[in-house]
Amino acid sequence: MWDEAHRKESYRLLIHDVSRLRRTAFDHLMKPLDITRSQWWVLNGLSIHGNQGITQSALAKLLDLGKVALGGIVERLEARGFVERRPDASDRRINRVFLTRKGNQILEQGWKIGLTLDSRVMRGISMARKICWPTSCRP
Fold first, then answer.
1. Can you give the pLDDT at residue 136?
2. Which residues on adjacent β-strands are paired with residue 98?
3. E strand or H helix at 54, and its extent?
4. Is pLDDT at 1 greater than 60 in this prediction?
5. pTM: predicted TM-score of the whole model, two decimal places
6. At a CB cut-off of 8 Å and minimum separation 6, what does 71 contact?
7. Average pLDDT in the 45-62 region?
8. I want to staple 98 with a disulfide (CB 3.0 to 4.6 A). Which of 40, 42, 53, 74 is the partner?
9. Is 95 helix (H, G, I), strand (E, B) or coil?
10. Distance CA 47, CA 107 (A)
């Protein structure tokens, strides 16, 4: 018999399953761009900081990634021309990571893919429910 506790747990499981399926679909749709979800996440994090760049340490903290793991991702993105590391203007010992024009282009393509996927995932859900969804999911 389902009581309120089981009903709440079923929502958690549903949200988890939808999230997992969306990640799988996103990975599949991003494959032609030859970019991983982790790389996409880093590019997205960099886009928040615009032209000022961000240190790898601050970016690792922002994305909740280990510094070593982030360093490998940044190296791969830099090798492909999506990001560049430059010395900090006030402290030459620190490098800041910047999104390049090519990185912005791939980010824009990824955003379009994500928006298309979101519209497919949310198909059949009224606009009123879509608007209230973010506030109704807060703990």
1. 67
2. 84
3. strand 54-55
4. no
5. 0.77
6. 56
7. 90
8. 53
9. strand
10. 8
Q: How many helices (H) and strands (E) does the chain have?
A: 6, 3
Alpha carbons 92 and 87: distance in angstroms, whole number: 5
Closest C-alpha among 106, 27, 40 to residue 73: 40
Q: Which amino acid is at 3?
A: D
* Residue 113 CB partners (closer than 8 Å, separation 6+): 26, 29, 30, 33
* Helix H or strand E segment including 28: helix 4-30
Yes or no: domain 4-136 corresponds to CATH 3.40.190.10: no
Query: So what's the pLDDT on residue 105?
Result: 95
Residue 137: predicted pLDDT: 62
Angle between helices 4-30 and 101-121 (to 10 degrees): 140
pLDDT of residue 3 exceeding 90, the answer is: no
> What tokens appear for 128 in the block?
């009123």
Q: Which structure tokens are listed for 71?
A: 């360093």
Rounded Cα–Cα distance for residues 24 and 22 (Å): 5
Residue 106 pLDDT: 95
